[in-house]
Design goal:
alpha+beta, twelve-stranded mixed beta sheet, two-stranded antiparallel sheet, 14 strands, 55% helix, 14 helices, 16% strand
Length: 412
C-alpha cells in the first residue's frame, strides 16, 4: 500500500473518534508545552543575568571569603571572616598588585530605617564611591560620598527610590535625617528608580560609607566582599594572580587548596551563571518529561482499545488484500500523527505562554526580560513527540497486524 494511502486511512480513523483523539494527546501537549516554557524562560533568565553581569564591567574583579562553592554544601563555607583591613592595605600597595586601579571593601546586611513614625527595612551596603561607577548608577538628587567622609566614619546615606517613597512619600527627603540602629544619618543623595540589576534591587538599598557600616551598624572587623577594578582588561589575569599571591601571603597559606578566599572575574561569573541556568533548565525539563511518558502510556492504552474496537475493520481490510505490514504501518502512523499533533500544539502553547510571561515580567516587574523562542526546544519537542508515538504505538500496531482475518471477521 502506498504511503499516502496509509496516512489518509490513519487520518480517517482518528477523525472518527475526535474527542478520544483530543484527550489522548493531552499528556503530550502538556509535556511539550512545559518543555518549551522551561527552555524559553530559562534562556531568557540566562540572557538577563548575563547582561547584568556584563554591565558591571570586564575590568571588575570580586573577592569573597571562604572556599569557592562547587556544590550546594559549599555555600556555607563562604560565610567566613577571612577578609580584613590589613588585606585592603596590602592589596592597595603597587608593589603587590601593580595593575590595581581601585578597591572597594563591602559590608552588607539588613536594618530598619526610621523617619518619624515611618519605618522601612532597606538592604544596607557599606561601600565607597566606586559602587556608583561599577553599577553605573548615580544620585538623581544630591551627591556621592567623599573620601573624607569615608575616612571620617561620617553618618551620611544615599537611599534608593523605594526607600524614599516609603519613608517620605511626596515630601522632600534630601538633607533630612533617618535613624538606623540608633544613629542619625543625613541623606546626601537619592538614586533614581533603577529596579533589579545583578541580583540587587537598587530601589531598596541604602548606601553608607563602609567604615561607618562596619564600625557602627554591623559591629564587625571583617568585610563581606572586595571589589577591585584593574587598570585595563588585558591586565585582569595578571591582577588576579597578584591578588591571590598577596592574600595567601597575608593569610599564611602555602597550599592553594586551603585558600580561605576566592577570586572571580566577570568572565568566570558569566560561565558560572550559564552552567547554573543550564543545569536548572535540564532538571526542569526532566521533570516535565514525566508527563510525556504518562502521555505515551495513555496513547498506548487508547491504541490498544482502538485495535480491539476495530477488529472487524482489520479483518475486512485483510480479507480484501491488506498485508500485516499495511496494518502495522496504519496503526503506527495513527500513533505518530497523534503525538505529532500534540507536539505542534504544545510548541504553540509553550511559545505563547513564554511570550505572555516575558511581557508580564518586563512591564509589571521592571525587568529587561526578552522573549526567546528556543529552536532547540521546538526540534526537541517534535522529535520527542515522534519518538513517543513510535515507541508507545509499536506494540498496539503489532497486535493489530498479527490478528487473523477469519477470527477478526467473526469478532462481535
Amino acid at each position: 500500500m502506498k504511503f499516502k494511502n496509509i496516512i489518509k486511512i490513519s487520518f480517517k480513523g482518528l477523525k472518527a473518534n475526535r474527542s478520544r483523539s483530543a484527550l489522548t494527546i493531552l499528556g503530550i501537549v502538556i509535556g511539550i508545552t512545559a518543555i518549551m516554557l522551561v527552555m524559553s524562560l530559562g534562556k531568557g533568565a540566562e540572557n538577563l543575568i548575563l547582561t547584568q553581569v556584563q554591565s558591571i564591567g570586564s575590568k571588575t574583579i570580586a573577592i569573597a571569603p571562604g572556599r569557592q562553592p562547587k556544590g550546594p554544601t559549599d555555600f556555607i563555607s563562604t560565610f567566613t571572616d577571612s577578609l580584613k583591613e590589613k588585606d585592603v592595605e596590602l592589596l592597595e600597595k603597587k608593589a603587590n598588585v601593580p595593575h590595581l586601579s581601585k578597591i572597594m571593601p563591602i559590608v552588607f546586611g539588613s536594618q530598619i530605617a526610621y523617619f518619624g513614625n515611618e519605618t522601612y527595612r532597606p538592604t544596607i551596603f557599606g561601600v565607597t564611591d566606586l559602587f556608583a561607577k561599577i553599577y553605573d548608577i548615580y544620585p538623581s538628587e544630591g551627591r556621592l560620598f567623599t573620601e573624607e567622609e569615608i575616612k571620617g566614619y561620617a553618618d551620611v546615606v544615599i537611599i534608593g527610590s523605594k526607600v524614599k517613597d516609603e519613608l517620605f512619600g511626596n515630601d522632600e527627603a534630601l538633607g533630612q535625617k533617618i535613624k538606623i540602629k540608633g544613629r542619625s544619618f543625613k541623606i546626601i543623595g537619592i538614586f533614581p528608580q533603577k529596579g533589579q540589576l545583578s541580583f540587587l534591587n537598587f530601589d531598596e538599598i541604602a548606601l553608607i560609607p563602609y567604615t561607618t557600616a562596619q564600625q557602627y551598624i554591623f559591629g564587625i572587623k571583617y568585610f563581606h566582599r572586595f571589589i577591585i577594578e584593574a587598570d585595563s582588561e588585558e591586565n585582569v589575569p595578571q591582577t588576579v594572580d597578584d591578588i591571590k599571591i598577596t592574600l595567601r601571603n597575608s593569610h599564611n597559606i602555602t597550599d592553594p587548596e586551603k585558600d580561605d578566599f576566592f577570586v572571580e572575574t566577570q568572565a568566570e561569573a558569566m560561565e558560572t551563571v550559564s552552567t547554573i541556568t543550564n543545569v536548572l533548565t535540564l532538571f526542569l525539563m526532566a521533570v516535565a518529561s514525566i508527563s510525556l511518558i504518562v502521555g505515551g502510556i495513555g496513547i498506548m492504552n487508547i491504541m490498544l482499545v482502538s485495535v480491539t474496537e476495530r477488529t472487524r475493520e482489520i479483518g475486512l481490510r485483510k480479507a480484501i488484500g491488506a498485508t500485516d505490514k499495511d496494518i502495522l504501518f496504519q496503526f503506527l502512523a495513527e500513533s505518530i500523527i497523534l503525538t505529532g499533533m500534540g507536539g505542534i500544539i504544545g510548541i504553540i502553547l509553550g511559545a505563547s505562554f513564554s511570550f505572555i510571561t516575558s511581557v508580564i515580567l518586563s512591564k509589571f516587574f521592571a525587568l529587561n526580560w526578552e522573549f526567546v523562542f528556543p529552536l532547540t526546544g521546538m526540534f526537541l519537542g517534535l522529535g520527542v513527540a515522534g519518538a513517543v508515538g513510535l515507541i508507545f504505538g509499536l506494540y498496539p500496531a503489532r497486535r493489530a497486524s498479527l490478528k487473523s482475518p477469519i477470527e477478526a471477521l467473526r469478532y462481535e
